[in-house]
Amino acid sequence: MKINTLVRLFTVALLAGAISFSASAKDQKALEAEAKISKADAEKIALEKVPGGKIKEGELEEEKGKLIWSFDVATEGSKNITEVNIDAKTGAVIAVDVETPKDEEKEAKDEAKSEKKEKKEKKHKKNKKEKDDDDDEKEKK
After folding, report:
1. CATH architecture type of domain 36-114
2. Residues whose CB falls within 8 Å of the CB of residue 122, separated by 6 or more in sequence, listed in order
3. Every domain of the chain and the residues it spans
4. Which are the contacts of 87, defined by CB distance < 8 A and separation ≥ 6?
5. pLDDT tens for residues 54-103?
6. Could you read off the pLDDT of 96-114 as tens digits, one per residue?
């Protein structure tokens, strides 16, 4: 009985992970479909704001209700990173912020906390659903 329950839980966890991965890929595709400015064009705009810079990382995301291209631009001889946000629909520069290594470390920690909280909430919802399903199954018997 315990093995059967473990197999079920493992299967549910595996399926939840696959669904989550699939959903995030679909979300990214949906965001890309909304963008009027290509990533390549947005990169050119970002690099105009940081002469001599090189794109370290870039992503399309929704932030404060706006669809933006966000780029981390490194400059040779500096440990700082310049974050450049481009409106993905108009190509307008929304923000240019210089981040020190300490700022980046704090941002990474904040993102990790946020992701951990989201995972915990998803797990709680999944456990509640499993409990409800088990209750439904018991009622059928």
Report:
1. Roll (3.10)
2. 16, 20
3. 1-34, 36-114
4. 37, 66, 67, 68, 93, 94
5. 999 999 999 889 999 999 999 999 999 999 999 999 999 999 999 998 88
6. 999 998 888 888 888 888 8
